[in-house]
Amino acid sequence: MPAIKVRATDRSIKKLTIEDLKIIREKYKDPRTIGTKASILVCGGSACAARGSLKIQENLSGELEKKGISSSEVSVYETGCNGFCNQSPVINVYPDMTLYQAFKPEDVPAIVDEHFIKGQPADRFVYKDIKEKKSIPNRQDIPFFSLQTRRVLNKSGLIQPDDIEAYIFHNGYTGLVRAVTAMKPQEIVKEIKDSGLRGRGGGGFPTGLKWEISMNRPDHTKYVICNAGPISRSIIENDPHSIIEGMIIAGRAIGAAKGFIYVREPDNLFILRRLHTAIERARGCGFLGDNIFDSGFDFTIDVSFGAGTFICGEETALIRSMEGKRGFPTPKPPYPAQSGLWGRPTIVDNAETFANVPLIIANGQAWFRSVGTHSSPGTKIFTLGGAVNLNGLIEIPMGTTFRSIVYEIGGGLKKKSTLKAVHIGGPTGGVIPESLIDTPATYEDITAAGVIVGSGNLIIMDNNTCMVNEALGAMEFGHGESCGKCVPCRIGTKVMYDKLLDITEGRGKLEDIDMLAELAFEVKRTTLCGLGQTSPIMVLTAIKYFREEFETHIKDHWCQAGKCRTLSTFVIEPKTCTGCGSCARKCPQGAISGEKKKPHLIDQALCIQCRSCFETCPFVSIRIEPSVAEEVDSW
Amino acid sequence: MEGNILIVDDDDIVVKSCDSVLAPEGFTITGTTDSSKAIELIRDNDYDIVITDLNMPGIDGFELIRQINALKPSTGIVVITGFTSQQNIKDILQLGIIDYISKPFSPHTLLETILKATYLIKKIKALSTAEPDTEPDAKKKTEALNNIIDEYKSVPGSLLRVLESAQDLIGYLPPSVQRFIANGLRIPVSEVYSVVSFYPYFTMKARGKHHIRVCVGNACHAKKSGQILTRLKRNLNFNEDNITADGKFSFETVRCLGACGFAPIVEIDYDTHGAVDPDKTLDILKDYH
């Protein structure tokens, strides 16, 4: 964890008054309008950065200069993540927000030429509709964006995340001004309670209620902690000030003077630098520090970090870790809101929850409730991944169905695949089958389906997914991340892992399925913390919805997805094989032979079940059949 | 077991009997009845274990132990004594010895004790060669570590930060560093160890020049990060400590780096590489020298 150096302020920012904020909003020169003709917004998110966004910026500036376009006519600047990571790199051209995607740094001249010289969108690099192959040049018309409701993410991809003035310009810190100067702590808590905001970290505990418990404690010292786990990364990357503002408001509401942002990985330099910069600038403007807006209210924020354990996302374990101890969870009650860090009342919320707070305070709870359902109001950020065409970061009103997420926002499934299940809730989440695809994404409906909202991670699984294998992976995770405090979690996950391994390797027995289900249920019921209670969910839901798959593994020694090596045989269907030879070229074992334009054959003695041929075959003529081995391992 | 052993006792029978028990076990034995000669021998040779009597004419056992600790502190000392009163034992244990054998003793006791002592001393020697003390810039690092400890000494709950800084400084957290930190922060070593062993960020083993992390979280697992791992292991020949023979690369698996939309993820040093496959990963590694 190298030292982080932060420039205190890039412009001479002094402590601001409310009038100053108004002046900034009036005078602020939106970088989008600096170029008289247009401005190019280069996405600087981690996905785009990995695909050369820096090089693209350079190329753009160079190319514009070459074509005789000055930087005052067309300006280039970097923004936060657009969330369109699947199509990275992404650039937007303001004012009409033409979006160019999935190009290489070398394609920049072509884009500049088409767009600025010829004056029309460079069709080759704009987004094409997946079904109709129609070009959609403008960002706001692309279904991925148009079907989202971006509230927390509304500035991402449009502003420079380090620029506090940009944040202020987009109505940032209005909520804070209102909370500090015009509202009593009780009113803030009431507003949050009325908004129905629920903790976005997984459990969905009503945030207002938590705050109220803390507010009513008589202690003088209280703490506010922002749990910045991996999924919160997206918000910190794009809009760190929204979290800071939310935390200050929370501090005001419960009477805390100290806040911590807990980052789980101490080596995540990008995030740490961004946080330090944001805190430093907020302090420079007087949003942090003593006597904020002359109200007599003091609040400071420090960044604190753990050392990379999943369990430290659990609030009590997080607090132990901040105290410099092993991250063991402790029984609740007492809740952290009553007795948390160093025994003081502490509210722990995740970054997305805090990012919602300033919006609620600034716009009122009625506005917040205007989207979402009655008991799960507002929006929720999900990361969309897996077998869908468009992966990325999305924000949708709660209550949107998974069908809409998969087929409309995500652009449906990739070629050759059909939907099998949606995995919800991150590493400790579970699956819902295709038949429940119309489930609305609300806390109640997701819980009713047997899974959790968790960190808001969606993985779309296609027909090539083996549920037994996925459950095995989940148990490997659960077993590896168990802190070891509770026996059911520590040993139960290991026993489940062993049983699942037996099944995937052909040693399973039919009674194992019931035993697994029972064990998973007991682990869920008897462990202390959220990790132990959620890690068996994958096993439970896989058995609940895909029991027959476990049975074929055990009875027929057949993994239909071909993921369990010992339980699958790859066979070429002679009727559909055209003899193109692409599988034979890919086979690392040289196990496939055959004449050109004639059906090929796989030598089962050489085959190592690596799936390369299955994935390569353009004609889907490779079948997966039960294992040919007589008795895989009889004992 | 191999080992270089010196036996010091004014009674020649004891020296001879020890020799007859230990020599067949593969130990190299030197014996002397003169304690001042023993000091010369210790100065000139490297013994793993010195077995000594306490009551001797001239330089007695207590003095001899003090001298050994000054001359060759990494020598293991086993005391043979006829005075096994509690105070006596307390005194000799405080001198920093490994064990004591009370006279009269059986060959079996002697052998057991010496085997245990040799095993221990070898372990300590192996550790101390990896400790920062033997590095050329050890002094600088000790000083830096002291500064870190001083900075956080009065901050409650700062153990994690101290350990993170220490790992940054030294690269890993061997037992000696853990002891050093425990001493500095005035907390039990067990507490330091409990924290170091709990968090995956901390490592007690040295890492390679470039550290590769392969994400095996759900999304990456679904996108076959396992294949990347297999290929890395096959191509780079990691040893059991997950480090290559030339010390250039080391690897570990991590669970979810939080960039699931861009799976599978491989992180090298502080650079994140997304949407990679086995071939691409090996290509990327070529850029790290």
TrEMBL record, chain A:
Signal peptide: none annotated. Residues 568-597, 598-627 form the 4Fe-4S ferredoxin-type domain. GO terms for molecular function: hydrogen dehydrogenase (NADP+) activity. SUPFAM superfamilies: 4Fe-4S ferredoxins (SSF54862), Nqo1 FMN-binding domain-like (SSF142019), Nqo1 middle domain-like (SSF142984), Nqo1C-terminal domain-like (SSF140490), Thioredoxin-like (SSF52833). Keywords: 4Fe-4S, Iron, Iron-sulfur, Metal-binding, Oxidoreductase. Its EC number is 1.12.1.3. InterPro entries: 4Fe4S_Fe-S-bd, 4Fe4S_Fe_S_CS, NADH-UbQ_OxRdtase_51kDa_CS, Nuo51_FMN-bd, Nuo51_FMN-bd_sf, Nuop51_4Fe4S-bd, Nuop51_4Fe4S-bd_sf, Thioredoxin-like_sf. CDD domains: TRX_Fd_family. Belongs to the complex I 51 kDa subunit family. This is NADH dehydrogenase.
From TrEMBL, chain B:
Signal peptide: none annotated. InterPro entries: CheY-like_superfamily, NADP_DH_HndA-like, NuoE-like, NuoE_dom, NuoE_N, Sig_transdc_resp-reg_receiver, Thioredoxin-like_sf. One of its GO terms (molecular function) is hydrogen dehydrogenase (NADP+) activity. It holds the Pfam family Response_reg. The modification 4-aspartylphosphate is found at residue 53. Keywords: 2Fe-2S, Iron, Iron-sulfur, Metal-binding, Oxidoreductase, Phosphoprotein. Residues 4-118 form the Response regulatory domain. Its cofactor is [2Fe-2S] cluster. Belongs to the complex I 24 kDa subunit family. PANTHER family: NADH-QUINONE OXIDOREDUCTASE, E SUBUNIT, POTENTIAL NAD-REDUCING HYDROGENASE SUBUNIT. This is NADH dehydrogenase.
